[in-house]
Amino acid sequence: MVCAAALTLLTNASGIFIVENDTINTKKIKPKTIRKKPFKLFNFSHKLHKWLMLFIGAQFVIWSVTGTYMVFFDIDYIHGDSLVVTHQSKINPENLTYPSQALFQQYPRAKNLSVGLLIDREVYRFNIAKQQYIIDAHSGELLSPLTKNTATAIAKHFYTGDGGVINAELISSNPPFGLRERHLPVWQVNFDHFSSPTLYISANNGKAVGKRHQFWYIFDWMFRLHIMDYGDEQDPSNWLLFFIASLAFFAALSGLVLTYFKVIKPMISSGKKRANTAKKTPQDSQLSVGDKA
């Protein structure tokens, strides 16, 4: 006859009791505790750096390329200062034969009268309302608005290069990119050079009001991309730039942490190991000498 032992399980808050053949055997089972993993700076920095650079990595490349371009070229060259020369010609008072009294009689509303040179010719410049005028200081002849030949001659007078004039065009409305509307009307004089230099000569006062070349246009686009200005404001304090720059700061900070764990810390550890090895070597040699003795 086979007797099966009756097993009964009793549980309470402190553990589990096993009842076997009316005998209570206590077997306390400890509940499992879930331990929180300690915070690891390396793992956190690695994940943060990976995801941030995945999101803004392209902008980092744009900043690098555009910044390199803007640093490589001299800013004075970009502004076109090397395209023009400032002539230090003196005004000859003997050529001012047209009296200012006659000028004000002919133009009673004239204001801001000044004397200057138009290439090698003494002229009067003045304003009537918002309009500018030029007259010959010798004969009183009205020279403005300038003709195409006169504007081309002035552009050649200012231009420092050797290339000839390709064409000259009068712009009275819709100024090209890089030229302000307040300078209109202007003569756009293009010269023959690989950088496509252009001088803008005011048709009213005969002054060079703008100087541009191909590298300036590229620089302008590089600057827009650098400050993340995708509109026409050219405002470096836009919110998009602030947001991306904030993320870039944390990406760079996490990258420094990774640099410490990947480069600096191993170097420190290897240096300590070499130092410990150097300390043990003299002791071993002394022991070997003692053994021989």
Level of helix content?
40-55%
The Cα radius of gyration reads: 42 Å
- Uncertain runs: 1-20
Strand tally is 10
Average pLDDT figure: 81
What is the overall number of helices?
A: 6
Largest sheet: 4 strands, antiparallel
Name a few traits of the molecule:
alpha+beta; 41% helix; elongated
Protein model, in words:
Strands 7-8-9-10 form a four-stranded antiparallel β-sheet. α1 packs across α6. It is 41% helix and 21% strand. The chain has a domain at 81-226. The protein starts with 6 loop residues before the first strand and ends with a helix. It is built from six helices and ten strands, in the order βββαααβββαββββαα. It has 293 residues and is an alpha+beta fold.
Task: Tell me briefly what this model is.
This protein has 293 residues and is of the alpha+beta class.
Topology:
Elements: E1 7-12, E2 15-20, E3 23-27, H1 41-72, H2 75-78, H3 100-106, E4 111-118, E5 121-128, E6 131-136, H4 148-158, E7 165-171, E8 186-191, E9 198-202, E10 208-212, H5 214-226, H6 239-292
Antiparallel strand pairs: 1-2, 2-3, 4-5, 5-6, 7-8, 8-9, 9-10
